[in-house]
Design brief:
Four copies of one chain form a homotetramer. With 305 residues, chain A is of the alpha+beta class. Helices cover 46% and strands 12% of the residues of chain A. Chain A has a five-stranded antiparallel sheet. Chains A, B, C, D: Homotetramer.
């Protein structure tokens, strides 16, 4: 398997020349576009790696399914889904339009920014600090990595340039989908996006979702089976921004990407995969990362459909 | 299993009181709203039935994935997907707006009307008659039922009231996504929607898709493995109109509904399911039919995520 | 005044180098982009001309306010405005989107294609021929020119390439805003767009509107005062496509443009102006023609605000 | 004239029973719905009044054309119109959608909230206090009323409930149409909306605009001729929210309404009119106020078209 991974990385290295590294904040712009790495953890807890699998990067939108899981554990589901929908939107991740044109004005789903701001607002805690701490602990447990933390340079930049997210949040507040202090909710949101991880962390979270929420090593249940299924379902229908449909056709694996260049994939009962390649296509997905997953899906017969 | 099906039908019969039977043409309005039926064909070609499983109804939008399969067999894929997208739209099935606001103006996917008109236009044949004949033959082979035919009353009514589809088709022609005579393409489209089937037919098509395109009985390959996967993927991301996301969460099975009241579901490697219940929710899906599938998914552990 | 007109034409000739002649049909593409002409008829029926004032071109969208006048004379107003709105849309003339997103689904106003198709459908007549004849007679009387007729080459091309208008018309029919045979209504619509006129014709129609509907020469009332005011009001709020607001700011005169390169302006109580310059900006307005009107408005103090 | 005004008020009093007083903040909800008042100041500086002409109310959106005038005096025009457009939008005053779907993302015009926030941001001053002071002084001079001030209860409520405006402002900032501190810009915006005036104030501002910017009493030039024309043009094309087109057809006078119940009208060279009637139609315009203006336009022949 390690050979296979090495081969897949080598063959797809050429795709790191296409697309652009995210540049809306300086910290992301500094990523090395030629980096490409992968880690797979299988259902025997075997770990396979290749390329730049241990380069650190920020999790960005890959935090969305994880925070959704937390929101679903912290709140009753009816209440969560009264504030965020379950439908793919067909629009870019940062689109505002449907908040106005939708009948309900509700964010379409928790994988676009507007919906993710809602789920972040639902995390329980007596203070912002407590919420942040609980969130970090949840990520650490899911990834089995206590050293996971926030990249504060990224966080500060996100906060500084986050006016589009601010616009969404105020609109959500105006329409009753979030309560409380907008800047505080956004602070937590920008922090969750700035959590620093590597491919191994993503693979571990992926295998734990694949095993329906039971940790692959400790056998401890971290997420209920139902929630773990929901998360994977959202990853299929909305996980790759407005290219989710094409990804499902070409690759056929539940996956979530982030503009930091990461992709987390979770093949039910089989494996978790973390991929890293910071050069993105126009929709915000790692170009080489998707190519790697497409090859793997073919070679290892991972397509769930 | 027959007992289980009977029980599930009985328990969900009450939901036939909710929603409305489609009424845009008289033939659909005449459906009996209390009807509820199911057929399952499993991977041993065992057939199980309950309720009004042999009531005939028109296939309507359930024809879309099947005609897509045909279009993908009749044309090279790049050409097909240059004319219709792969993304869920988040809009109602008969929405026109995205044909104007999308960057590409391309129909979002082949499961909404605009996209289905494109795939219909791609069916090969030297004449309208030949196309119609080829289409009917394909449905008959997939359902293993030579008696399948068109309900001409429904077809005539569809044609008479089809001005919204006409509007879409002319827009598609204007933008280069369909070629040839619009009325002829629509004629074929209205015919495909008016094909009459029952739950057994749908279950058979479903199991054949579940077996990756190989007929469950004859073992003959009817559709390639890749195309069968594509079809099921589209059924997950866009099969239940703009309620596909919620259905994937609640039920987790590739499925396609039609306003005639049918739902065809295909559980990879396991079974095909045909359900019939003509009272629809606002988005056009059978209310009781969805409830039946939700129960079955739970009881038989069919969720693929 | 003739000297002034000559000077204004000379000074603005340079702007004929900008923009593009309409090219969606061959007949329009053949227009000579360097042409620039003007005719003014004042409230003493004095006629002033300069440049290519007697070049023939097709009236295109300038027919819209005239056919609206006819629709308002043929029908009661409440009925007309139950089928077409009074509001500028902010969208391009051939936009379809608002027909779906508007609460009423009604075309926003009679100056965009969708709205103009509605007003055309309201012209009375026992046959298409009679409607065509009545329409031509109305244009001839308003322009005091019995030789006005249809350019059949343009008409045929419009009809051949008119699929976008066909899409709109079927949507309008679906939503109950037009009745009767769509192709027949469009036939009349394509004919009205293909009426051939020159700057003198436009100036004469303009002065007759400026004199509240009384013909400047015969003193015969051709249009009621109220209708003449309505027409001029629509010309201000929607006459220059989605650049009407800017034109009102810069020029401040009721005016209507067409993609044939013409602009008809009507200064209440003062004068009618016809301008011709076939090179258009992206919104479909004559670039040099607008410059000429801006200069004239300044020099002759024609701004009504 | 006073008799005519009394008669018009009496005849239209019945329309105060229709529609709703604005209720999004408690202060507006407390307005007396049966109030109806008018003031006319003519080009001889004669003042005519009837009904509740001296009831105080907040200016709300009627501040928009005035602040636009100020922005056009404080900045070069090219710079102003690089940040806000000149086109009617066809959308409600608080719509956000076009900020995303427009090619330029620029607010359509300065009469909708998004555009007005831009013009407010362009008011010069070394501090928020100085800007507020300059703004108040400008309103006072235009209305020739030094007692004009801000209703701080309304201001506080606007600020508290202004999350939709906040959303717009952050989107505008994100897209580069406003600079500086969003909360400070909104503070000024909420203050301008909370300026308290009566019908006499509005009539005075109206006549000064009608006289092309020269104060009717002091003969002092307050606004340039060009700016005064621009303001009236925007009042025609966008002054009555998304009912501007219909108002232009029915009444034909430059006018601006506010959700406080006021309407300011300006008949070029003839008169300024202030009307007050707090019960609004769904688009935010005073129902009885519009009826009064329609009657007056008919009786006094004020239609400019």
């Amino acid at each position: 398997m390690n050979n296979l991974l090495k081969q897949v990385i080598d063959e797809n290295k050429k795709y790191t020349n296409y697309g652009q590294v995210a540049s809306y904040i300086p910290e992301l712009k500094n990523a090395k576009r030629s980096d490409l790495g992968i880690c797979i953890i299988d259902n025997n807890n075997k770990i396979y790696t290749a390329g730049n699998y241990n380069t650190k990067f920020t999790i960005q939108s890959i935090s969305k399914p994880i925070v959704l899981a937390m929101a679903l554990m912290d709140n009753d589901w009816t209440s969560v889904f009264s504030k965020v929908g379950m439908e793919p939107s067909g629009d870019p991740f940062n689109s505002i339009m449907k908040l106005e044109t939708n009948d309900t004005k509700k964010p379409s789903n928790p994988m676009i920014n507007a919906g993710a701001i809602v789920t972040t607002s639902l995390i329980k805690g007596n203070s912002l600090e407590e919420k942040e701490e609980r969130m970090l602990q949840f990520f650490r447990r899911l990834a089995n990595n206590d050293s996971i933390g926030i990249n504060y340079e990224v966080y500060k930049s996100e906060k500084l340039t986050g006016d589009r997210n601010r616009a969404m949040a105020y609109l959500l507040k105006n329409d009753g989908f979030i309560n409380g202090d907008v800047e505080e909710i956004l602070d937590l949101y920008f922090k969750q996006c700035s959590i620093e991880i590597d491919c191994v962390d993503l693979a571990r979270i992926g295998i734990n979702l694949a095993m329906y929420g039971v940790d692959i090593e400790s056998k401890e249940r971290l997420i209920s089976e139902k929630v773990s299924r929901m998360i994977k379902t959202f990853m299929v229908t909305c996980g790759m921004y407005d290219a989710s449909g094409e990804f499902a056709i070409r690759v056929g694996i539940p996956a979530k990407s982030g503009v930091g260049g990461g992709v987390m994939a979770s093949v039910p009962e089989k494996m978790g995969i973390g991929v890293y390649g910071p050069a993105l296509d126009k929709k915000g997905n790692s170009i080489a990362g998707i190519k790697v997953l497409e090859d793997l899906s073919e070679k290892l017969e991972l397509n769930i459909f």
